Amino acid sequence: MTLEARRSIFSRLVLAAIGLSLALVLVLWFVTHQTVVTTLNEGAAKEVDVDIAGLVDIYATSGLDELRDRIADRVALTPAEGRTPHYLLANDAGERLAGDLTRWPALDPMVSEAGAIAIGEKSRGFARAVQLGPDLRLLVARRTDASAAVLRNIAIAFAIGGGMFVLLVALLGRLAALDLQRRIGRINLAFREPGKAVELIGVRGRDEIDELAGHSARALERQRGLMEAYKETSEQLAHEMRTPLSHLDNRLLKALQAEPAPRVAERLVEARAEIKRLVQTLESLLDIASSKSRRGDKAGLLPVDLSAMVTSLCELYSGSAEETGHSLTWEIAPGVMIDGEERQLSRLVTNLLDNALKYVPPGGKIEVSVGPGPVLVVSDDGPGISPADRKKIFDRFYRGQGHSHDAHGSGLGLALARAIAERHGLQLTLEDCVSGSSFRLEG
Length: 443
What we know:
58% of the residues lie in helices and 16% in strands. It is α+β, with helices and mostly antiparallel strands. The protein folds into three domains: 3-149, Beta-Lactamase; 208-293; 302-442, 2-Layer Sandwich (Heat Shock Protein 90). A hairpin with a 3-residue loop joins β3 (114-119) and β4.
């Protein structure tokens, strides 16, 4: 059984039904077995008691010789039905006077004791002993081991019938479970791929599951409508903010083209840089919101060669690293694929590389590795991240107290990287390091 099957509630229900059915069959067999055994024993006891009553009457009316003759006749007669009878007529010393049994069992004739005895070497029987006179005792027995065949046949019948019953329960349970699993699977698919939710809206409510499917579909449709409205509002807001900022930047550019005084020109350049930073911050916030809103949504994801993409980025950044005095090395396993948006994944990696180049002093080492999983690791030997910053490093607008040689930045790089990772169903974490820092992205 696969791990998924073991974890499925429907598989567990089928197994529980099979176990319950098997337990029920075993209980019924046990009750039937005990009932048959009790009935057979009671029947043997009645036969013995009736036989004893007749022999006692013969002894009382006709004497010892007649009793011995009657016992001999009964021993010689093999009954067509019922249990084979056995007898022992003996004196008080246990010496046989008549019958086919040779040894007196541990039964007290003075109290008409009854119980199970051995008959021969392999057979068992039910017997009762009675005292006929001062020096005469009688034992009458009926074999009960013949009932073992009856019990064996009952056990076989229960094994065959019970097995068919358990198989029928398993089959019907599995068919019912598959139907439930299929219906629940449609609901889960709608949550994994919201575009499928519309297929559930037309489902007629046969039971609670169909009702749940309808409610889920309508909730997903409302959520999608809200997210589209949110996206539209965000894009409109971004457009309304970009437009005046763009106009302001153009005016500042025209002012610079007029060749103002050096001090004024310096301030105009700083203002244009602030405008650019505001636009970048706005775009990063919109990207973070978009990635978080699409977390777990696989729509639009296509196979991406992560190995080729990271290799290309490392080659692109190697020139910048050389100019800033950093050592950038990479070890990329070939053919590592992932379903995703290549542009977003590329931005995630560049944010990690930018973060390393920003905080690692010149002369430091930056290492990048990609392996199956996929697993991407970007590590460095820089000043590292203080324990106080570790829990907040992925928060928006949070900038640690590290030794950054770049005073600029909005504190959104790592927040955006994590949002992109979550949108692709990946985890971006900061690993514990003795020195430097190491960011690990894995599925």
